[in-house]
Design brief:
Distance between the termini: 30 Å
Number of strands: 13
Radius of gyration: 21 Å
CATH class of the largest domain: Alpha Beta
Number of domains: 2
Mean pLDDT: 89
Number of helices: 14
CATH architecture of the largest domain: 3-Layer(aba) Sandwich
Structural class: alpha/beta
Shape: elongated
CATH superfamily of the largest domain: Glycogen Phosphorylase B
Oligomer: single chain
Largest sheet: 7 strands, parallel
Length: 377
């Protein structure tokens, strides 16, 4: 089977983790197939990073995306007639002429922003509207959609009227990190801290951190929270934290290497995940794998991932989060027990990227022999 793979738009952290690992796995398990892939320039990959797959490197930006999907890939498919196209980046090739599988990561495609009552700026709303419009345009010739969770499957079904039997769940994995012994063990001399491992998107709900720290201060608990964002990326949080007198308790680390993110999770009193939208929630799984006490938003995506091994709180109620943290500080054994259950859940649920790649190949093999309509416009 000739498989065209469009990963050219996977520049975000989470989608990039999925794309790079799926492509590496396909180079290992897809050797019976002929594969060509369009990938982002930002990956810094050369042909040696995906042996057996012909790579086309694409520069960033909306113009490059539109040219790649509406001209570059179309022309390539005329001279190299692929049997299927697998697009891993939410939107791709409107009116595609071959059977087409589309992987949707973006929660703003599955959910309308209004459904989550997010305070989005005009510029971000315009961007989301464009993404959704382009998704809708391409949807008419998508053969099947694949997502990573059941809650995304149900949300796309409700919002876009896509039949459930045309939406396939293929869960993802997290990148394994072999930590050195000194990183894998908590540093008992280190002062207690909280952490939130997330990018600065508005759906990540960083502003709640200020409310949490203020709730702890009312209990006479002063504890810093370490965030993997720059202060300039979360102005609403900074303004609210300044207003509540807790800004000095927030440590803005910016982006950190994966090994450091895992070390933060292993060492923290609690890992916070107040996000209001996720498609898979990589940090949830990383926190469980690290054995970290975890508090997550009481929303479907978090409960699907963590079941009964996380504590949950309303993502708009900082006082409830502060109360849970205070309980763990009073009873460290309870927090440790919760972390141990997280390790066990991850161990039981974990899959490999090779198995994930094989599942995608099975789905591609099941596509109809010619383009079919998943939903009429």
């Amino acid at each position: 089977m000739k498989i065209a793979l469009n990963l050219a738009n996977l520049r975000g952290y989470g989608s990039g983790v999925v794309g790079r690992n799926v492509l590496r796995a396909l180079s290992r398990v897809g050797q019976m197939h002929e594969l060509r892939a369009w990938i982002p320039y930002e990956w810094g990959w050369t042909q040696s990073d995906a042996p057996g797959i012909r790579l086309h490197v694409v520069r960033g930006g909306v113009p490059a995306k539109l040219l790649t999907e509406n001209l570059g890939i179309r022309l390539a498919l005329k001279t190299w007639p692929a049997d299927v196209l697998f697009s891993l980046g939410d939107t791709s090739v409107p009116l595609c002429g071959v059977p087409h599988l589309l992987l949707v990561h973006q929660p703003f495609i599955a959910h309308a922003a209004e459904d989550c009552a997010l305070p989005l700026g005009r510029r971000f709303r315009a961007r989301v509207a464009l993404i959704n419009g382009y998704f809708s345009l391409g949807l008419s010739t998508v053969s099947k959609i694949t997502v990573q969770t059941e809650h995304m499957r149900q949300a796309i079904h409700r919002r876009w009227a896509v039949p459930l039997d045309r939406i396939v769940i293929v869960p993802s994995a997290i990148e394994a990190v072999e930590l050195e012994a000194e990183l894998a063990t908590k540093n008992e001399a280190e002062s207690p801290f909280l952490c939130y491992i997330a990018s600065p998107g508005p759906h990540k709900n960083h502003v709640l951190i200020a409310e949490i720290l203020a709730g702890l201060a009312r209990r006479e608990i002063r504890i810093p929270c370490r965030l993997t964002v720059e202060s300039s990326a979360v102005p609403d949080l900074c303004a609210r934290a300044q207003e509540l007198g807790v800004l000095e308790q927030i440590e803005f680390l910016g982006g950190v290497p994966l090994v450091e993110a895992h070390r933060l999770m292993r060492s923290a009193v609690a890992v916070l995940m107040p996000s209001k939208m996720e498609s898979f929630g990589i940090p949830l799984w990383e926190a469980m794998a690290a054995g970290a006490p975890l508090i997550a938003s009481d929303l479907d995506f978090a409960r699907e991932a963590c079941a009964d091994v996380a504590a949950y709180a309303d993502p708009d109620d900082g006082e409830a989060w502060a109360a849970q943290i205070a309980r763990w500080l009073e009873s460290p054994a309870r927090a440790q027990e919760q972390g141990a259950r997280g390790i066990e859940r991850h161990r039981q649920s974990a899959t490999t990227w090779d198995d994930i790649a094989r599942r995608y190949l099975d789905v591609l093999d099941s596509l109809p022999a010619s383009p079919s309509v998943i939903r009429r416009l």
